[in-house]
Amino acid sequence: MKLLDILERSVERVIHSPIDSVFRQKLQPAEIERRLERAMIDNSQRASASTIMPNRYSVKLSEHDFASVEPFLASLARRLESWLADRAEAHQGTLLDRLQVEIIASADVKRRRPLIEASISDIETPGPPDRDRSSRPASDHTQMFRVVRSHAVVTLRVLTGDQAGTRFSLDQGRSILGRSHDVDIRVDAPDVSRRHLRITRDGKTIRIVDLDSTNGTRVNGEAVTSATLRNGDELLVGAQALRLVIEP
Fold first, then answer.
1. Do the Cβ atoms of 229 and 213 come closer than 8 Å?
2. Is the pLDDT of residue 25 over 70?
3. CATH number for the segment(s) 19-119
């Protein structure tokens, strides 16, 4: 075993993840999640037979709390987006668009007292003023939302290991998956290389490239060095199984 691997695994026994380590003695993720869920419920709206849930969230932190998470903002935002997706599903809610979490600093917010603003995105294309609106049937006036998604929601769902059930959101562009603390998608397992593979998302097109990992990568049981994934494909990273889910 390489000396670097031995040292890293020794450290990982003490520090599970950079985000959890930062929060352990300061602001807890559960505090943010609890307030996010409350904002989701308080700002939801009924439309026909469904409940429309907010899909855009602004998390305002004190300057002190923001400084402690600033190195991990992107990872934390994805973690919260994945958690919100689970809660929306648990509440049987509907989203108009993909979930977005923005984390910002505010001098008006106290330490460990995050302020959450939640809204439902308006994805209708703006048009000219409707001068004949008053002549429309009453049913048109009461139809508040048209439930569509303008962007696909793409996630990797962990199927095995200690992280089973975890969902990682895939943003546009490139992401690195691996065991290291500084990657975009961290799968904490000894058979996963520190930088195991690169994932590139372009719309609904997801392509992976193995980064010369020790234990290799498989797609639906077949060993690959690169591949284009489709909805439902099962990815085996070392011995850790993940499934790609694309929600149109």
1. no
2. no
3. 3.30.2320.60
Find residue 236's DSSP bridge partners: 218, 241
The span from the CA of 33 to the CA of 86, in Å, is 11
Are residues 148 and 123 in contact, defined by beta-carbon separation less than 8 angstroms?
yes
- Specify the range with the lowest mean pLDDT, choosing from 71-75, 177-181, 243-247: 71-75
Measured between alpha carbons, how far is residue 17 from residues 62, 108, 167, 186 in Å? 22, 29, 16, 9
Banded pLDDT at 234 (limits 50, 70, 90): very high
Q: CB-based contacts of 59: which residues, under 8 Å, 6+ apart? A: 32, 36, 80, 101, 102, 103, 104, 114, 115, 116
CATH code assigned to 153-247: 2.60.200.20
- Report pLDDT for 8: 55
First-residue to last-residue Cα distance in the chain? 44
Average pLDDT, the chain: 79
